């Protein structure tokens, strides 16, 4: 009898030991892990946010957005976590804190976190050329040197890559090309590395490709095994992970109609799905809160580098390594990122000095979503509220200055737009009255619209067609961003911009042939 009791006691002790020693490898995507503060399903509320709750409820009740999910953490604890509206209107599935939203560009700080794991292992050097980690297809420099397009400059959007987005909808007869093919077509350096800040989805798409090459895992596998599961983010995946389909929020357009599912040729920049519960825990990790059920995938020093490392090219520049850092965000230093595309509005923001993190996710594109972070912080921080109200009473002037061309721009210019498959001659005439006439040879002469000239860079757009196979998929206009250099030279990118489907950059260069 005594032996039986001892045996039973040993079984109980072993069972408890197994339960307590739960390795992260045993967790699966989709596991309903208890929130750090509460049991699953319990809505965490805080009376400080009641007016914001009512505002969100009103947006949902009126049908202006399908759903909004919010999470706020303070001093290492989640103090508000709640969802409003429909994750899927058609199936009448309500949004919850575990609903997985398309994140759009909040994918970037997640990708940057994964990359820094490889930097810590010394498998990647931030200061080395990105081409060192690519395969046969490498970045090609039309100006400057490709060797100066470092990993760090890719992270900071200062590598010289042009603007880029490329979406592929399930109801269109087109499929995303391989990353090798995308690099071959659009991996071009069009401004001297370190010279200009140009936000580039392609750059982060390339970083995801580098992660897969260096780690010998696919990008999605690496992010799952090295970032998501160790941080206990079981409702986070690149795309919609297998077995997680029931948790995914649908995307809805401005007409509130269902948006067909779409993918990208730059997944590491845009393709991650996550829940508000998971993402607030990601924010807590970047606040160095060291939650007991999260593995320390990065040293605190690496987190500091991501948020604080100074850019020698752009002292004080807001974009660091995967995050946008504002030194004076209504009196506080903030570390944040937003995401926006068809059917998506998202934001994550942390205030390190106050140990605050917040996340707002929505399955519509609606600019009002980006005001909620300020309202949340105003409810928590009296100084923030005071400074915010001052700006509301004295809004900054936002009117664009009237374009007045400098003498160096006046005259006639000839050049070419060089894409991966064509060279198209282009002519431009800049008049002293501010009108700029543009003609792609063989196409209609037209005016350059929405013209701006700032810091030596001319921007504008005009009707025209870049005649490549992929740009010819849909109607587009041409967007210019060209820098004025000495010796009467203009160069930069010409982007085939279709709006919903793509923005594809090609090299453009011009020389002045006559002056007015």
Write up what this structure looks like.
By secondary structure, the chain is an alpha+beta fold. It folds into two domains: 102-390, Beta-lactamase (3-Layer(aba) Sandwich), CATH 3.40.710; 411-514, Porin (Beta Barrel). Helix content is 25%, strand content 28%. It contains twelve helices and 23 strands. The chain has helices at residues 2-20, 50-61, 107-120, 151-156, 179-186, 201-215, 219-228, 267-270, 276-286, 300-308, 372-380, 382-393, and strands at residues 67-74, 77-88, 93-94, 100-102, 140-141, 164-169, 188-189, 236-238, 262-264, 272-275, 324-329, 332-341, 344-351, 356-362, 411-418, 423-430, 436-440, 446-447, 449-454, 457-463, 477-485, 489-497, 502-514. Strands 6, 9, 15, 16, 17, 18, 19, 20, 21, 22 and 23 form an eleven-stranded antiparallel sheet that branches. α3 packs parallel to α6.
Features:
single chain, 516 residues, alpha+beta, Beta-lactamase, Porin, 2 domains, seven-stranded antiparallel β-sheet, globular
Q: What's this model, at a glance?
A:
With 516 residues, the chain is of the alpha+beta class. The chain has two domains: 102-390, 3-Layer(aba) Sandwich (Beta-lactamase), CATH 3.40.710.10; 411-514, Porin (Beta Barrel).
CATH superfamily of the largest domain: DD-peptidase/beta-lactamase superfamily
Give the class-level CATH name of the largest domain: Alpha Beta
Please give the alpha-carbon distance between the first and last residues. Answer: 108 Å
| Strand-residue proportion | 25-35%
CA radius of gyration is 25 Å
Structural class by helix and strand composition: alpha+beta
Could you say how many structural domains there are in total? 2
Provide the low-confidence segments as ranges.
Answer: 5-26, 29-41
Please tell me what the overall shape is: globular
How would a crystallographer describe the biggest sheet? 11 strands, antiparallel
Arithmetic mean of pLDDT: 91
| CATH fold-level name of the largest domain | Beta-lactamase
């Amino acid at each position: 009898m005594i032996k039986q009791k001892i045996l039973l006691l040993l079984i109980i002790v072993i069972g408890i030991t197994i339960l307590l020693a739960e390795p992260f490898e045993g967790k699966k995507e989709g596991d309903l892990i208890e929130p750090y503060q509460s049991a699953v399903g319990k809505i965490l509320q805080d009376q400080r946010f009641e007016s914001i709750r009512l505002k969100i409820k009103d947006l949902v009740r009126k049908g202006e957005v399908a759903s909004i999910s919010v999470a706020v953490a303070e001093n290492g604890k989640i103090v508000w976590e709640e969802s409003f509206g429909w994750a899927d209107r058609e199936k009448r599935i309500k949004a919850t804190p575990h609903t997985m939203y398309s994140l759009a560009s909040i994918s970037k700080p997640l990708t940057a976190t994964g990359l820094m794991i490889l930097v810590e292992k010394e498998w990647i050097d931030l200061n080395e050329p990105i081409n060192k980690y690519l395969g046969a297809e490498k970045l090609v420099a039309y100006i400057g040197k490709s060797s100066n397009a470092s990993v760090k400059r890719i992270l900071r959007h200062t590598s010289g890559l042009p603007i880029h987005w490329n979406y592929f909808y399930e109801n269109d007869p087109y499929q995303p090309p391989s990353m090798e093919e995308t690099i071959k077509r659009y991996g071009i350096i069009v401004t001297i590395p370190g010279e200009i800040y140009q936000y580039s989805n392609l750059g982060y798409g390339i970083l995801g490709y580098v992660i897969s090459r260096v780690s010998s895992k696919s990008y999605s596998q690496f992010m799952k095994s090295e970032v998501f599961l160790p941080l206990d983010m079981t409702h986070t995946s690149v795309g919609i992970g297998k077995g997680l389909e029931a948790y995914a929020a649908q995307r809805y357009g401005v007409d509130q109609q269902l948006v067909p599912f779409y993918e990208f040729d730059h997944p590491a920049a845009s393709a991650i799905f996550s829940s508000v519960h998971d993402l607030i825990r990601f924010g807590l990790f970047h606040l160095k809160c060291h939650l007991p059920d999260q593995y320390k995938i990065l040293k605190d020093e690496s987190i500091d580098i991501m948020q604080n490392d100074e850019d020698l090219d752009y002292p004080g520049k807001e974009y660091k390594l995967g995050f946008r850092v504002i030194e004076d965000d209504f009196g506080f230093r903030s570390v944040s990122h937003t995401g926006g595309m068809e059917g998506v509005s998202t934001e994550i923001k942390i205030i390190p000095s106050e140990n605050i993190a917040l996340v707002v996710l929505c399955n519509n594109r609606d600019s009002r979503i980006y005001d909620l972070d300020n309202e949340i912080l105003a409810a928590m921080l009296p100084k923030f509220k005071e400074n915010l109200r001052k700006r509301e009473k004295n809004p900054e002037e936002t009117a664009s200055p009237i374009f007045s061309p400098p003498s160096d721009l006046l005259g006639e210019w000839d050049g070419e737009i060089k894409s991966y498959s064509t060279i198209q001659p282009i002519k431009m005439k800049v008049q002293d009255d501010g009108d700029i006439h543009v003609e792609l040879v063989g196409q209609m002469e037209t005016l350059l619209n929405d013209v701006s000239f700032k810091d030596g860079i001319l921007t504008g757009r005009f009707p025209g067609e870049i005649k490549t196979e992929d740009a010819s998929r849909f109607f587009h206009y041409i967007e210019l961003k060209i820098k004025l250099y000495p010796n009467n030279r203009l160069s930069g990118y010409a982007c085939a911009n279709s709006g919903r489907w793509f923005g594809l950059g090609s090299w453009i260069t011009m020389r002045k042939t006559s002056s007015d």
